[in-house]
DNA sequence: ATTAGCACTCTTAGCTTGAGAGTGCTAATC
DNA sequence: GATTAGCACTCTCAAGCTAAGAGTGCTAAT
């Protein structure tokens, strides 16, 4: 049975008020605050219907109603769409010409979003994994150490210090540098595997034994770059919500945010749009009284990471969806601008 | 008036018990739990004396006593020294040869220390500022972008992406690279200032206008590296302490940890040893019910950053001092090992 | 100098109670 | 038939009260 218009309006009213007050909402409150043209008794009946249909719940008899996960879902899917028509188009004025590492920029945006929304933000940082290697280079530091610098097409940079057992002379170094540069540039990181190593091995000829070791080391360090990088900002914002005045619940929340496995899975982008997961819709029990709104961010059209706003299911979906939308668009734009080739 | 032996033992007993229970300690409890050979009445009198002398305080009449900041200070200075005789000597077994960025290593140790101690750890990350530049290099990315890579004597590495208004040709690039390399290597970062810029300008000759701009950009990005980098780990551990069951207090604590100015000042190393600041000894009002135990960490003898364990004044100074001591020694050793030149 | 004893103080956990908010049902009304 | 007024009933929660418990400080005895 589809919801008639009055039921929709009542559901919306309950959600709106509950988002604000975190208190169960009674029929009289709605009759007073919203001009629905019917008395509280009618609303009372409608609310009983909505509860029976699963959109509302009652914490205990003779308390008001609160929205259920299903109620929020209906709200997000059916009621919210009217408000989300606006598109944001942001024009960049001017740019400084020095850019921090990409991670710093992403963190800055996470911080901004957290302070605007007063929510906890979780971020999957840009990963090097799926990207094409644009530049790979080794640089000598001293006789037995070198820096491995990798930069991908989308602008992610990583550097690692490699310490060698034996000293390396400058001719050999030059040779090695050219070799890995030729072999690895333009490849995706995951393509840089054993086959490639064998190829390098073959070409290195006389210096083989030594080159062999170094190549292994380099491949190793590339593997290290794999580890997903998670970041969070504004965790303590959870304490602003009265439902987290219980210390134990707060502690559980902190532990959840620190749980790399769950966060990683939760932040995995499923499609290109903004996704909302409400309470028990999550496959993780730990998330059942939380909602997350997540959005990807991109460099030149390629998804490089994910942003999420996480908080109690009672969240201001309307406002937050707008804000994450704006923010991820802007971040993508900034990153793309920086890493765009020959832009002028 | 110096404390006689019995008073010392009673003070120690109060502190020990209070660290464990977070409850005011009464005379009877001490008589029962510690075998001092006197009755509770005697202890009662002694405690009254200790209170008058400022080592103990009473939350309200007819409650037990809790240690004052002065009490803790006395404990740390006079009682603890017996326990701190042990020295740790750690031998490294073997090392993998790829090292993550220095920051990652420091963070790993912070995490470890936090999980061992169940306290919040604040860290001043390695700074490039006071260190000699060992290697500075620009690398072309594409026609209008380059990477600036700086490495200091102690092994701190930073890289920045620089985006140029105009394209740069490879001859000019080579020239510029040699120039900044010659001029900046071996200098301390803060010495790389306007004077140097002028020098570079003078030598650049015909290409001057262009080089000028790039040099400015480079100096700018060096300035960016200045910003102190603070890091914290295990913030939520504060919720383990009953004195932070009050949500408002917890929130204040979180804000304090996020306050870069205060944390930066608090973590400024004053001397080479382990420092303990107890409650109101701090110049920051925000720290008055907190204590911090801090220790520096070094690379090849040079201080590069600071570690701090922060928590309620009721902390297990004895255990924590030992643990931060061990940890910072080990970290210094690891870092020095990695960045030691020609170690084999 | 130490200790037993005791009156006194202060806090806190547990209990009771009444106000307030809200429901669901019934009967009257539009 | 849908809406509404009215009312009995339910449940929560804050306020006030009380008694138990922990601890002190003082006095007088050892």
CATH architecture name of the largest domain in chain A: 2-Layer Sandwich
Could you name the ranges of chain A where pLDDT drops below 50 across 5 or more consecutive residues?
85-97
The biggest sheet of chain A amounts to: 5 strands, antiparallel
How many domains comprise the coordinates of chain A? 3
- The succession of helices and strands of chain A, N to C, reads HHHEEHEHEEEEHHHEHHEEEH
Q: State Rg of chain A.
A: 26 Å
Estimate what percentage of residues of chain A fall within beta strands. Answer: 15-25%
Compute the separation of the termini of chain A in Å: 58 Å
**What is the number of helices of chain A?**
11
Say what oligomer this is.
Answer: homodimer
State the CATH topology of the largest domain in chain A: Beta-Lactamase
CATH homologous superfamily identity of the largest domain in chain A:
GAF domain
> Biggest interface and its residues per chain?
A-B, 47 and 48 residues
Shape of chain A: elongated
- Classified by CATH, the class of the largest domain in chain A is Alpha Beta
| E-strand count of chain A | 11
Task: Name the structural class of chain A.
Answer: alpha+beta
Strand order of the main beta sheet of chain A, please? 8-4-11-10-9
Mean pLDDT of chain A: 82
Protein name (chains A, B): Heat-inducible transcription repressor HrcA
InterPro entries (chains A, B): GAF-like_dom_sf (IPR029016), HrcA (IPR002571), HrcA_C (IPR021153), WH-like_DNA-bd_sf (IPR036388), WH_DNA-bd_sf (IPR036390), WHTH_transcript_rep_HrcA_IDD (IPR023120)
Keywords (chains A, B): Repressor, Stress response, Transcription, Transcription regulation
Family (chains A, B): Belongs to the HrcA family.
